[in-house]
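Lecture notes, unit on protein representations.

Consider one protein chain, 691 amino acids long.
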Amino acid sequence: MKIPQLAKKLEKKSCHGTEWEDHYSWIHQDNILEVLKDGSKLMPEVREYLEKENAYTEFKLKDTKDIQKKLFNEIKGRIKLDDESLPFKDKNYIYWTKTTKKGNYSIKLRKKIGSSSEEEIWNGDKEKGKLKTEYFGVGDLEVSWDDKLLGYSLDLKGSEYYTIFIRNIETDKLVTEEIKDTSGSILFSLDDKYIFYSKLDNNHRPRKIFRHKLGTSIKEDILIFEEKTEAFTVSIGLSSDEKYYFIVSSDHNTSEQYYFSVNEEDPKPKLIQKREKGIIYSVNSWDGNFYMHTNKNAEDFKIEKTNDINFKKWETYIPAKDETLIGGLTFLKNWQIRSEITDALGKIFIKNLEGNKEEELIFSEEKVFDGGVSLVQKDKDTDLIHISYSTPKTQSRVYLYNLKTKTKKLVKEQIIPSGHNSNDYIVERLECLSHDGRKIPLTITRHKKTKIDGSANLLLYGYGSYGNSMSPNFSSTRLSLINRDIIWVTAHIRGGLERGMKWWKEGKLLNKKNTFKDYLAVAKFLIEKNYTSKGKIIGMGGSAGGLLMGVAVNESPELFCAVVMAVPFVDSLTTNLDHSLPLTVGEFDEFGNAKDNKEHFKYIYSYAPYNNIKKMDYPNILITTSLSDNRVLFDEPAKFTAKLREYKTDNNLLLLKTEMNAGHGGKSGRDGAIEEIAFDYSFILKMAEKI
């Protein structure tokens, strides 16, 4: 089959005195956000190219059809299809969700406290069937305080433009107009007369908070807050004590918060603390006090406390610790819960408010694990919480923990129907030195039979952006590779928060190259330690992790036998220069502002994957994207693929697969998600010569 070729149309570009040529920029349409909402507006020649790439990918991977089916059944076989969540006790009802063997979406159920009669209030598969749509994304699912109304938001394209619906649970009838082009979040007022929501602007940024009176025209909706700064987006929530609404306006690096009482008929949000560049803070209220989680004069955060409604006098409540990320607070009547993260490992602390004594809650003997706490009921007068726990080799377990007696009871364990023995696997936490002497944590998961003699293939997963930390949790899907003698390694590289805010700062803006150098240092370390060999590594990352993959293959292609790049941010310079795109302006403090800052421009230009493709051999590469993705536009991976085809000097596979009815997260539904994983894994196994 003929290799697809994207037509070349020269555009000469220049910025800050630098000139360069771009032969594929023509595929970016001026009305690109309209294309995301309505794929029929895509240029016919671009659609034809994407479809040819899809056909070429299918042709080149036709020998993986059987393994794709096997992987699909294998991965699905590890999922308990007919499963139920743990119940949550509200004031009048107990709520929970369940999935079925045949369904792809969750069902929400409830029963009155004291009753045995169940009531189904939401069924995702039935809702999708009514709408007859291929893509079905649920944004929010909220029940009103009086338990009479169900609010839900839907994205039917994958473009993350959500429409809000409110319906009467008893009659199944809509009680108000549909509200289109929202961020998807729904907040009922405590009297259930209103909902609060955020509206998306022309650049797909939520910068306005509206109050809608149920049963009235949306033309009468009241704008209660508007953020004027392009880079900031807004959200609204309720305080823990249900006395205040809090509006948060923020970008990735700076935040500002406003509040108003739940009793205000005419809401007038009041400022808590004026924004300061680089300062992130969040205020909550409980039992007559306000608590502020902030990084002001505390790089890795601290918590302050005041009972001053004017927020003038704060006292330190939880002090800062160097390179230990201090988390926020969860409140119960007699207890307080908080978390910390150090070296990519979390800790949970419990304080008895009566004795004012804080203790670490230790619930695992394993060194590498992921844990969390959730509440079991709406009423905060309880000594019971749920503790969730998993490790890379041990499936999730949830315990009902009594804070008073310090006893725990296993109430739910992730069941692997096809069987799983955690003793068959080995988990290691190692550290390796990066180029500047910083120690990079890495989590290694392998089958006990896999030899550490350099013969094994190794999948090296990385992300390293936005302060997102990679948790050492359990994934049943990864077992399909690990059981086939592929070692799975997660590199906790800079750009995340695994070692606090400093870890993030050392991996962004003019330090961004540390992210890439860390990843390559880990790859070379693993080769040196005989976990794998040069040319046997499979690189894998998505979105900003796709940026990482793009830089890695441009810098050190010889390390890899294959690379999987999902919705990759590979034309990062072009996107950064376009301030009309949804995410660009809000990410100036993450990646820089190339358009207005010459130093930023030169730095981004020096690593942007699309601009740094070279005439050399590249490994086998699979690139996946989605037509309706508004976070990383499909034209980035499409341009990258076209240019890479032109430059690369090898005969290795270069495949581009575009989902024509999906968004940034890929296909919707359980089976759709499994199909995508099975497809990616089949490519990996083919390249590792495992099929």
